[in-house]
């Protein structure tokens, strides 16, 4: 049975890490160090883990994925949103040939921004939507900052934390995966791919479907709990850490009895005004030569989604 660093890589479950009760401003150093080591090992080997995080209540989760997201995709106005100049970065987008479409809000940590998006969908306003989304994004931003800090500390880059956090941009994506009721087989709703950003946190609700490829080329079916979320490393973070972290392939598969699946995806990426991906010099030495030349993240996004579909890193 294959193993790496004492961890069984044949295990068809992502590691689970409990971050409930931890915060940036107040934490137990011993507990923090134990969890940090677990995250570092999980990201190096699997490129992801299941995070248990009780700060987001089951009620908020149900509001989002049981009420708000289904209503969002039933609104005619959503399909009228135009794409941005960046591929898969606009409000409304789909992937040709696959039963999937999504709505993405950039810079979603301000009420005014969320209200602007909301007013385009519900001209009369929707305070329930705005408050729930803002509440969720604030908790997700706090969770992201904990994860980013633990990653930098595990790499000996504590001094980079403040500048790194200030350079981040946040987005929230609502996705709808579906298939025809007459389709009795399993359906690949989203093909294998790596995320281009820093970190992705996926919130599933009742309907599973996210699968992550391990280092043995086997697909791990994620098994989220009612208080857990799936964390995945993207290509930008793999490049920024000079390959120290693994960015995994993942896909969405709908089982034969499933006809619809909603998720909320929260992500971090470089800000538009500061998007150079350049590995810190502390991570470059004789044992770890530079793997990726410095590149502009948003240029890479445009390059990645050209018609040629060349998926190599810059």
TrEMBL record:
PROSITE patterns named among the record's database cross-references: FE2OG_OXY
Any one Pfam family match given in the protein's UniProt record, by short name: 2OG-FeII_Oxy
GO molecular function: metal ion binding; oxidoreductase activity
Domain Fe2OG dioxygenase: 168-270
Cited InterPro entries: IPNS-like_FE2OG_OXY, IPNS-like_sf, Iron_ascorbate_oxido_reductase, Oxoglu/Fe-dep_dioxygenase_dom
Keyword Metal-binding attributed: yes
SUPFAM superfamilies with a match to the protein in the record: Clavaminate synthase-like
Keyword Oxidoreductase included in the entry's annotation: yes
Homology family: Belongs to the iron/ascorbate-dependent oxidoreductase family.
Protein name: Fe2OG dioxygenase domain-containing protein
Organism: Dendrobium nobile (Orchid)
Lineage, opening ranks: Eukaryota, Viridiplantae, Streptophyta, Embryophyta, Tracheophyta
């Amino acid at each position: 049975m294959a193993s790496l660093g004492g961890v069984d890589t044949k295990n068809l479950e992502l590691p689970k890490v409990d971050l409930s009760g931890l915060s940036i401003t107040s934490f137990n150093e011993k507990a923090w160090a134990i969890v940090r080591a677990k995250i570092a090992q999980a990201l190096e080997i699997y490129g992801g883990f299941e995070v248990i995080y009780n700060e987001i209540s089951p009620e908020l989760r149900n509001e989002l994925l049981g009420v708000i997201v289904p209503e969002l995709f039933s609104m005619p106005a959503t399909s009228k949103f135009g794409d941005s100049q960046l591929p898969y970065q606009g409000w409304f987008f789909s992937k040709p040939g696959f039963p999937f479409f999504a709505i993405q809000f950039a810079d979603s940590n301000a009420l005014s921004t969320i209200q602007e998006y909301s007013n385009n969908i519900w001209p009369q306003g929707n305070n329930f939507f705005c408050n729930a989304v803002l509440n969720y994004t604030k908790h997700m931003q706090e969770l992201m900052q904990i994860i980013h800090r633990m990653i930098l500390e595990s790499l000996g880059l504590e001094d980079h934390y403040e500048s790194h956090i200030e350079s981040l941009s946040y987005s929230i994506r609502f996705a709808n995966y579906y298939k025809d009721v007459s389709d009795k087989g399993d359906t690949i709703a989203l093909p294998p791919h790596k995320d281009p950003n820093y970190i992705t946190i996926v919130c599933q609700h009742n309907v599973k479907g996210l699968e992550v490829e391990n280092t043995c080329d086997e697909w791990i079916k994620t098994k989220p709990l009612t208080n857990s979320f799936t964390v995945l490393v993207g290509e930008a973070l793999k490049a920024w850490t000079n390959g120290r972290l693994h960015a995994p392939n993942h896909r969405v598969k709908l089982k034969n009895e499933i006809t619809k699946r909603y998720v909320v995806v929260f992500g971090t990426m470089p800000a538009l005004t500061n998007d150079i991906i350049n590995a810190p010099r502390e991570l470059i030495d004789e044992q770890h030569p530079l793997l990726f030349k410095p590149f502009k993240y948003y240029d890479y996004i445009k390059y990645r989604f050209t018609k040629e579909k060349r998926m190599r890193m810059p």
